[in-house]
Amino acid sequence: MLQLRDLPTPEVLQRFAQRYPEADVTAIASFLMLLRVATDLSVALDACLSKHDLLQGRWWVLILLMREVDLTSTPSVLAEKLGVTRATMTGLLDGLEQGGLVQRILVPKDRRSVKVRLTEAGQARLDAVMPDYYTRLRQSMQGLNEQQRQDLQALLGVIDHGISAWDFK
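Above: the chain's sequence. Below: its structure in token form.
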């Protein structure tokens, strides 16, 4: 993943806007800052999880399973919730199963169907990771008060809605 460390100055953006009339300088600056912060957060999350011998994809699978009342889901549902292909999910599940963090269970009435269950070892791994994760998350957000956090969520929702402009279908 590339990371733009050197964000353009307003003067540089203004030069681009002179060449490309569609350019909105404040929109570009905001977008690039958001992209950089999101990338930095992803890198920081990777570093946190690696201390617990996890990668983001595998961690998210464990989180999704923990959210289920019976700690169980199907690979296709997990793939859909993570926004990955079934092949990618198979790879994630293979690694988690090898580590004893999840268990594949054959559905008795349909031998082709498989469910995935969070194991005690998987729950124990989450129990080790989550306090560290929540502490770091709280520290990274401590500069915002409750109202600012709610405002941020609302603003990000507006931006998320605008992502459809990137759809080239």
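The first strand starts at residue 72 and ends at 73.
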